[in-house]
Write a structure and sequence with these properties.
- By secondary structure, the protein is an alpha/beta fold.
- The protein has three domains: about 5-70, Histidine-containing Protein, Chain: A (2-Layer Sandwich); about 80-145, Histidine-containing Protein, Chain: A; about 150-215, Histidine-containing Protein, Chain: A, CATH 3.30.1340.30.
- The chain is about 35% helix and about 30% strand.
- The protein is built from six helices and twelve strands.
- It has helices at about 5-15, 45-55, 80-90, 120-130, 150-160, 190-200; strands at about 25-30, 35-40, 60-65, 70, 100-105, 110-115, 135-140, 145, 170-175, 180-185, 210, 215.
- Strands 1, 2, 3 and 4 form a four-stranded mixed beta sheet that branches. Strands 5, 6, 7 and 8 form a four-stranded mixed beta sheet that branches.
- Helix 6 (about 190-200) links the parallel strand 10 (about 180-185) and strand 11.
- Helix 5 packs across helix 6.
- The chain is elongated and about 80 Å long.
């Protein structure tokens, strides 16, 4: 008598051997001779062909057929499809270092992990993942790599602020504690405040910005 793992392997091999079936998106589970088929195929004919292929394998006593027909025009909303589309989008997006970010999808919820050099890369990955149809939410656990000294972080932020023609660098104070940057001082409008925040976020190692800038 075949073991469950042997039966599972034989059914998978038979599906791969069947020319009418695109077996790459079909999963197989076996328990005491009962085989469960899951996944999705592009048409009903393949669904029936997969069931027939499994039924002709020696040792199969019953089939629980849970394959779904998903047409090419249908939204791609299975966890596998969502993950594949996110990875594909990462490869197209030049702001996302796709080789450094891992993607996990469970019931439509996406978890991103890995590390990047810049905060904008972390945010770009989350934004890209959130655009995919079927995504219910994104848990962004990507870390910003690097441990620059607080003095170095402050110097880089001040240099970035000084480059902005819309800002008076002398009116803004910057303090750094760990990965947190605190901005204070006075500006004349929301746009100046936003520019100062962007300057702070542009520096590697910054995970949080506390904006206490007031309006003059």
């Amino acid at each position: 008598m075949k073991t469950d793992s042997q039966l599972q392997r034989d059914v998978l091999d038979e599906l791969a051997f069947e020319p009418m079936v695109e077996h790459g998106q079909i999963g197989v589970m076996a328990k005491d001779g009962v085989v469960t088929l899951t996944g999705h195929v592009p048409n009903y004919a393949q669904k029936m062909a997969a069931e027939r292929a499994a039924a002709r394998v020696n040792g199969v006593k019953a089939i629980a057929e849970e394959i779904k027909v998903r047409f090419p025009s249908d939204p791609k909303t299975s966890d596998t499809e969502i993950a594949e589309r996110i990875l594909q989008l990462f490869r197209w997006d030049v702001t996302v270092p796709d080789e450094r970010i891992q993607v996990r999808v469970e019931n439509g919820w996406v978890t991103l992990s890995g590390d990047v050099e810049w905060n904008y890369q972390k945010k770009a990955a989350q934004t890209a993942a959130g655009r995919i149809t079927g995504v219910k939410g994104v848990n962004n656990r990507v870390e910003i790599k690097g441990e620059p000294s607080p003095a170095d972080v402050r110097e880089r932020i001040m240099t970035a602020i000084k480059r902005q023609s819309a800002l008076d660098a002398n009116a803004i104070s910057v303090s750094v504690a760990g990965h947190t940057v605190k901005l204070s001082g006075e500006v004349h409008g929301w746009n100046e405040r936003r520019v100062a925040e962007q300057a702070a976020w542009s520096v590697p190692g910054v995970n949080r910005v506390e904006d206490e800038i007031a309006f003059a």
